[in-house]
Amino acid sequence: MTKGKIYLIPSFLGEDNPNIIPQQIKYVVQTLDIFIVEQARTARRYLRAIGFMKNFDTEVTIHEMDKHAKAVSYDTLLKDIAIGKNIGVISEAGSPCIADPGSDLVAHAHKRGIEVVPLVGPNAILLALIGSGFNGQQFTFNGYLPLTTPERIKKIKQLEAGLGSGTTQLFMETPFRNQKLLDELLRTCHADTKLCIACDLTLPTQLIRTQKIADWKKSPPNLQKRYCVFVMGL
After folding, report:
1. Measured between alpha carbons, how far is 234 from 230 in angstroms, rounded to an integer?
2. Of 17, 110, 147, 223, which sees the most CB atoms within 10 A?
């Protein structure tokens, strides 16, 4: 029997906006009845928003997976692959496996020889990069910066110091800590350092602006509870 596949399904970057989801994704999800997600509630809402019609109570299986999942649970989650069933993996926002636990699941799938099919869709990291005006040939995504203030400031200084090599630096924070991170960037970075704030990407409130720290200080935006990617570059 032919093994099933894993489809990596991008989701919204914020509020429901079905128009930004490619038709290919809408077609693929209609063929699936098993999903691995971070939160079942938001996954069901997303699927309904893009036109998924199957009954969640009788026709669909949704497995929740968090960052504490172990290899033994991956085998359980993927057991139906062996009988030819395809499985969809959905992140809470944007593309799976970037700053979420899906990457470990996919790594386990490769070890088991399972075909992985990434689908094209919203990706905040790439949208921020191409919208920043910075070097798109050499860049590093640093994920979430350290939680403690001293370590976070130390990391900010390291990223700023590394800009001389021409490498664009991307990083992010949770929506309720974005304002604090911006305040620390404005206090820590040199006045001439360039910062792009890419906020609420694909939403009506979208903000993508690149300017020097000195200019951001003159009129800092309110980023509280908004989804942001920060980009530093030359």
Report:
1. 14
2. 223
Name the region of 202 (left: φ>0; alpha: ψ -120 to 50; beta: rest). Answer: left
Amino acid at 204: P
DSSP state letters, 91-135:
-SSSSTTSSSTHHHHHHHHHHTT-EEEE-----HHHHHHHHHTS-
Q: Which CATH number fits domain 5-118: 3.30.365.10, 3.90.76.10, 1.10.940.10, 3.40.1010.10?
A: 3.40.1010.10
Asked if 203 contacts 143 with a C-beta cutoff of 8 angstroms, the reply is no
Q: Quick one: fold of 124-233?
A: 3.30.950
Quote the radius of gyration of the chain (alpha carbons, Å): 20
- In this prediction, residue 101 carries a pLDDT of 79
| Cα–Cα distance, 126 to 82 (Å, whole number) | 34
What are 145-178's pLDDT values in tens digits? 999 999 999 999 999 999 999 999 999 999 999 9
User: 132 and 196 in contact (C-beta within 8 Å)?
Assistant: yes
